[in-house]
Specification:
This protein is an alpha+beta fold. The protein has one domain. About 40% of the residues lie in helices and about 10% in strands. The chain has a 4-stranded antiparallel β-sheet with strand order 1-2-3-4, with helices on one face. It is rod-shaped and about 100 Å long. The chain starts with 11 loop residues before the first helix and ends in a 15-residue tail after the last strand.
């Protein structure tokens, strides 16, 4: 009687190679995925502030100066889910305004960055958001 050994399955070397390949792929893909997710969250701030800018322009056209309180604008907009909304600030309400949103909660390693908007749109110099997170460039 002869015993035949059927080899089924993978050897330890083959499994190790597959695990190493999967690890390298994950090492390359995870940071890109986190950046894409954070960029989509940052776009929430940009969309919110663009709507505020348009409402501020309408308010200034009617009243001759920019609005000082968010509640006085002609829009009803929910606060961003991933950002804390600051107050309007200005040195001269007839010519300028500014609003800052600060990232709240976990941000995939990007920290609590800010997005600043004014009467001219996105203020890149006053914002601390990283360039690769800016959804419009």
């Amino acid at each position: 009687m002869t015993l035949t050994k059927n080899k089924k399955g993978f050897s330890l070397v083959e499994l190790t190679i597959v695990v190493v390949i999967l690890g390298v792929l994950a090492m390359l893909a995870v940071p890109r995925y986190q950046t894409a997710v954070e960029r989509s969250k940052a776009s929430e701030a940009f969309s919110y502030l663009a709507q505020i800018e348009a409402a501020q322009a309408r308010y200034a056209a009617r009243h001759g100066e920019y609005c000082k309180k968010l509640s006085d604008l002609d829009i009803s907009i929910d606060s961003p889910e991933h950002f804390n909304v600051g107050n309007f600030t200005s040195s001269n309400w007839q010519t300028a305004w500014q609003m800052k949103l600060t990232r709240s909660g976990a941000s995939g390693g990007f920290g609590n960055y800010t997005v600043v908007w004014d009467q001219n749109g996105f203020n890149e110099k006053a914002s601390s958001i990283k360039d690769d997170l800016i959804p419009v460039k």
